[in-house]
Amino acid sequence: MTAIYIKDRLLSPKVVHKTPFEIVHNSKPSVKHMRVFGCQVYILTPKEKRLKWDPKARTGIFLGYEEASKAYRVYDIEAGQVVISRDVNFDESAFGLSPPITAEHADDIDFDSLDLDDEAPGQAQYKKTGKRKSRPHDEEVPAPPRTQCINGMD
């Protein structure tokens, strides 16, 4: 649903200089509320659910927007589950679990000394068949981990 929401606010190749949202609603869409996917967030723990010395917020990763309400879908790192909350503070300079990179730290990185290969270690060779690449013929592909169902949604 989030992908469609964003796509409706992008320029349409069919109509020059207009988005699908503009065509339907005759007004430009607002994108002020949109956030960077995968950025670090802090989920507020309500006063009723915390004790005196408990932290006021938990760290999480922004996953998207909730369909049925004006809330955010966030992966709560501490609880290990996806939660839906409106009380979220965003740190768009940090992604996932990595610390934020500032301009001072970016200048200190020496990219010439890094040993970067074009292929990742353990990357399987793919055989080409037609337009698509097939799975490696000599390796078993593990099944993806199952996620927990929250509020009856998958």
UniProtKB/TrEMBL annotation:
Taxonomic superkingdom: Eukaryota
> What segment(s) does the record annotate as region Disordered?
112-154
Give start-end ranges for the coiled-coil region(s).
Answer: none
**What residues does the Retroviral polymerase SH3-like domain cover?**
39-96
Q: Which InterPro entries match?
A: Retrotran_Ty1/copia-like, SH3_retrovirus
**The protein's name:** Retroviral polymerase SH3-like domain-containing protein
Q: Identify the species of origin.
A: Peronospora matthiolae
